[in-house]
Amino acid sequence: MPGYPDGHVFYRSLNRQLPLAVRGEGCWLYDATGRSWLDAVGGAFVVSLGHGNKHVASAIGAQATTLGYINGTQFTHEPVEQLAAELARRAPGDLSHAYFLGSGSEAVEAALKLARQYWVESGRPEKTKVLSLAPGYHGNTMLALSASGRPRYQTFFHSWLVSVPRVPAPYPYRCECAGQSGDCPVCSGAALERVILEEGPETVAAFIAEPVGGSSTGASIPRPEYWRNVRAICDRHRVLWIADEVLSGAGRTGTWSALEPYGAAPDLLTMGKGITSGYVPLSVVMAPRRIVDVLAKGSGALLHAQTFSHHPVACAAALATIEEMERQALLPRVAVMGEVLHRKLEVLRAHPMVGDVRGRGLLVGIEFVANAATREPFPRAQKFAERFAQAAFDAGLVVWPNTGHANGVDGDLAMLAPPFIVTEAEIDEIVNRFGAALEIVT
Ligand SMILES: Cc1ncc(COP(=O)(O)O)c(C=O)c1O
């Protein structure tokens, strides 16, 4: 197995040997020795259509041979025009215009800069502050990292980060009210208003948050009124609400946007990951005319130039992904198979080290605890989540571990987000392998 310091790859993990993956098919991955893994998390919440989708592959090839690259300041092209229209049709509220980038971090970075530019060009330059939820994650570039309520990722970079006041994230499992009280300041959204008032509403430009918890809170689901309350608070104080759907969007929770069941629409929205099912990198910032118009009448452009934005091949891949989702009716399938997955995972609750199983659609978080009655987390030194993920990997199951959500240091989660084409037999296999890995670790 290859690994550092062999060869010339600066590996993402410098102290592990990695299998040499050679092929993917459906929910399965294969290495050069013929070993197989059930990819229960689509790599990193990315592979929604499954591996080896021929329709997307041929759309990419066709676009590359027709028009591989042009610069978005000089030309527009069919794939970008069509994709923007498709996304506008699906987006919540009045989000009508799509600005394309490569990664989720870039989309977050651009959305935050757009919010700031909008206020400056609207004659409100004093609106500079960004608020975000903690725990929460928005990416690894400097502004996105500043907005991320994930202290460990910031360890070496504090002197480069901007200050982003935090609002406690709705996280029912670790809230005193267990998500049961509409009067709880955290679970109702009132905590956001408190922070806006403390900071001074006239100074607050934007509030960024994940509609459904990503890895930071392990698929925590806010109360039904949470986002409508957030909408009202942001309107009251003229704060732009940015919904970061890089992970939760493009169908992962059973609706195109995870906000649909909440009946609330943000001012700006980001998507990434599953938007091309991972065949090529693509992310998007969606904005309404009322915001874009301000730039159009003012400076004339978003001050955020990137060479690969509005990329033809990436846009063609996203269009083909949407076509496949429609052809195979995958959105309704996510809702149905999500229920199957959640029902079958219920068996894990009997395990003494499983504190919670939660999520929506094909997005699941399983929280591990040292004591299920008190919800006490394992001490970080035990590295429970990492050891669990390794045991699962050894058992041929790819999951996503996460740590630190309980108190910033302790806390162990495993997340599942299988491709939308996952079958019931594969779900059984996921549950079996998950249980087997849990036995090994405990
Ligand atoms: C909610 C959210 N926003 C932003 C990002 C950053 O995306 P990327 O890793 O593509 O830069 C992620 C990545 O996990 C995410 O989950």
Topology, element by element:
Layout: E1 21-25, E2 28-31, E3 36-39, H1 42-46, H2 54-66, H3 78-90, E4 95-101, H4 104-121, E5 129-134, H5 142-147, E6 166-168, H6 185-188, H7 190-199, E7 204-209, H8 226-236, E8 240-245, E9 268-271, E10 283-288, H9 289-297, H10 312-327, H11 330-345, E11 354-360, E12 363-368, H12 384-394, E13 397-398, E14 400-403, E15 412-416, H13 424-441
Parallel strand pairs: 3-13, 5-6, 5-7, 7-8, 8-9
Antiparallel strand pairs: 1-2, 2-3, 4-10, 9-10, 11-12, 12-15, 14-15
Bound molecules: pyridoxal-5'-phosphate.
Pyridoxal-5'-phosphate is lined by residues 103-105, 108, 137-139, 210, 214, 244, 246-247, 272.
Descriptive report:
The chain has 442 residues and is an alpha/beta fold. The protein has helices spanning 42-46, 54-66, 78-90, 104-121, 142-147, 185-188, 190-199, 226-236, 289-297, 312-327, 330-345, 384-394, 424-441, and strands at residues 21-25, 28-31, 36-39, 95-101, 129-134, 166-168, 204-209, 240-245, 268-271, 283-288, 354-360, 363-368, 397-398, 400-403, 412-416. The strands form 3 sheets. It has a 7-stranded mixed beta sheet with strand order 4-10-9-8-7-5-6, sandwiched between helices. Helix 2 runs antiparallel to helix 10 (312-327), helix 3 (78-90) packs across helix 10 and helix 12 (384-394) packs across helix 13 (424-441). It contains 13 helices and 15 strands. The model has no long low-confidence stretch (mean pLDDT 97). The protein is globular, with a radius of gyration of 21 Å. It binds pyridoxal-5'-phosphate. Pyridoxal-5'-phosphate (PLP) binds next to helix 4.
